[in-house]
Inverse folding.
């Protein structure tokens, strides 16, 4: 089974801090994704990466950056955390380029910015 | 453009009742369709998928049929259990990376 592991289930940070969310997958997938999930808004794509050191903006990249130095690891960075970034963050990965292949998700990180 | 519309929740059912969660989509090209489930406090798990018209995806007693003529992918289960209480997301994929989600439908099953 595919395993996508997010480093923290719950995280509390303060406004203005630099925050790192880490995600690791164990299936040698090319593609990795970061979403945020908010009530009534569903999942929104922040950034994705289709290869090491490659990244693409999703629907809501403002206030975030990402890093993919190794194929198995994809980090989401909040450069200067703000209260409106309090949310559930979900990492996902998928293999290859076929439309038929689903994304596999981690358990999520619930981030609170105080 | 691409979009997914799910029925508004929440849905509350008694144990052993029949479940339908409606999902319709708008897409360019030939999308694959997915249902994901999110149990309380967890991430999303793939429940089932269908990759072409008239395909039926099934898993854990849940079924959904890819209906191109009605652009629908409704989720059904004949007899729900308390353990099925979760949020269900319909999603479509049109390329390597583009996964579009509905807003989710919360299901609560009471004994």
């Amino acid at each position: 089974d595919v395993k996508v592991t997010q480093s923290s289930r719950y995280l509390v940070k303060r406004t203005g801090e630099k925050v790192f969310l880490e995600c690791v997958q164990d299936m040698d997938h090319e593609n990795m994704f970061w979403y945020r999930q908010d009530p009534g808004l569903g999942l929104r794509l922040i950034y994705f990466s289709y290869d090491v050191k490659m990244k693409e903006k999703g629907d809501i990249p403002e206030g975030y950056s990402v890093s993919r130095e190794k194929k198995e690891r994809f980090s989401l960075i909040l450069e200067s955390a703000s209260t409106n970034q309090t949310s559930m963050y979900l990492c996902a990965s998928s293999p290859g380029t076929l439309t038929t292949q689903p994304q596999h998700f981690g358990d999520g990180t619930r981030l609170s910015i105080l | 453009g691409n979009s997914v519309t799910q029925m508004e929740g929440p849905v509350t059912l008694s144990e052993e009742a029949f479940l339908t969660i409606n999902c319709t989509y708008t897409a360019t090209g030939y999308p694959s369709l997915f249902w994901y489930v999110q149990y309380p406090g967890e991430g999303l798990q793939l429940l089932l998928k269908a990759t072409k018209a008239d395909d039926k995806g099934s898993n854990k007693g849940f079924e959904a049929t890819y209906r191109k003529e009605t652009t629908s992918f409704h989720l059904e289960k004949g007899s729900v259990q308390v353990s099925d209480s979760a949020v269900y997301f319909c999603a479509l994929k049109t390329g390597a990376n583009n996964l579009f989600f509905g807003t989710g439908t919360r299901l609560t099953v009471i004994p």
Observations:
- The radius of gyration of chain A is 13 Å.
